Amino acid sequence: MAIQLGKLKTLEEFITLGLSDQFDKKIIFIRQGADLAALSGDTSEREAAINKAAIDQLYISYYTATDVKRDDIIIPRNLPVIYYGGNSKESLQFINKFNVNPKRMYNLPEPMLKSGDKVQFSKIFANCDWLPKTVFKREEAIEGAVGFPVIAKIAKGHSGLGIKKIDTAADLKKEPETFELRGEEKSFDLYSQFIDFDREYRCVFLNDKCFIINERVPTIKEDQSIRTKKVDEKVKFIYAYQDMNKIPDDFMNEIYRISGEVRKEIELGLWSLDVVVDKQGKIWVLETNSATGLGSVKLCEVYMEVYKDFYRRELPDSFKEELWRKYMSQGHSIYWPEYKEEILSSKWPMDYEGILAKYPIIDEYGK
């Protein structure tokens, strides 16, 4: 029996009633483990509950670290795949063992490797006007090849881990050759020009379309930034959602110019571009990320974009409304009003207050 889109009222109806191939349109999500904190950063009990509910409703999930050992898995070959496995041994074994169709994958291991390694990325784009000047030898940095202050980094860091601002050549000379980071002995792999920036953004893309922009605002409580943190400290950001309708054309045009140059060299599917804007208004790229953190809001935004791109059709408005009510608004409620000051300090903030006035808090997710 055919089911008309207009008759679908809720998220559950869309997923459970549509059993024909016209409606049974889920998305596969392959990642290394089931840990929600690893997927979306440090999560509160409430945030973890919202994230789990959204993942369970929207995605068919596989975990390469454990599922690679199973022999009873058959991966549907007609569905789109969000791949967050990277180049881990288990993940590469998983996609080979279960014949995951690469033509249906949003991200492949090789582009993820180029994107995730700061040394490889810096070498590929060394001549681009949007990448801070970078060298890979400590001696060159000491001699002032990129100026001072300098930003010293490890090749594979995240959330500010393994990054340190060093003010002078004398300070860099005194810096230990190696240091302990989360139980491992590390050394800096690259040294980059310090950009004195006003604002920092994460721009999230599906292929060549930017569909989310967050301003990364350090929390007032921690009062921490790349300028002041220690090498083994993370930077606590609020990812303030920006209203895409408020962002000026000149900003977006430059973002698209840069992202176009990136994708010519690294064909990423679901990815993000981390940029800063300096005192003169110039945009600089800090890094790309092909396993962008996904909290409940992004889980839904990504679902909608991948669905539209893969199936070439929009989700029903009633389905989108249900996503907002059950997950997206609830995700926003975690940060508003606790981080109201940080959010309102961002350049083009979304109307958090209006969203939460429209959608009531759902108590079943906890406090």
Secondary structural class:
alpha+beta
Shape: globular
CATH class membership of the largest domain: Alpha Beta
- Series of secondary-structure elements, N-terminal to C-terminal: HEHHEHEHEHHEHEEHEEEEEEHEEHHHH
- Assembly level: single chain
Mind summarizing the main beta sheet? 5 strands, antiparallel
Structural notes for this entry:
The protein has 367 residues and is α+β, with helices and mostly antiparallel strands. It has 2 domains: 5-107 and 292-353, no CATH class; 114-289, D-amino Acid Aminotransferase, Chain A, domain 1. The protein is 35% helix and 21% strand. It has helices at residues 11-17, 36-40, 45-58, 64-67, 89-97, 109-116, 118-124, 138-142, 169-174, 249-265, 296-311, 317-333, 340-345, 352-358, and strands at 27-31, 59-63, 81-84, 105-106, 134-135, 150-153, 163-166, 179-181, 184-186, 190-193, 197-206, 209-218, 237-241, 270-278, 283-289. The strands form 4 sheets. A 5-stranded antiparallel β-sheet has the order 13-12-11-14-15. Strands 2-1-3-4 form a 4-stranded parallel β-sheet. A 4-stranded antiparallel β-sheet has the order 5-10-6-7. Helix 3 runs parallel beside helix 11, helix 3 packs antiparallel against helix 12 (317-333) and helix 11 (296-311) runs antiparallel to helix 12. The radius of gyration is 21 Å and the shape is globular.
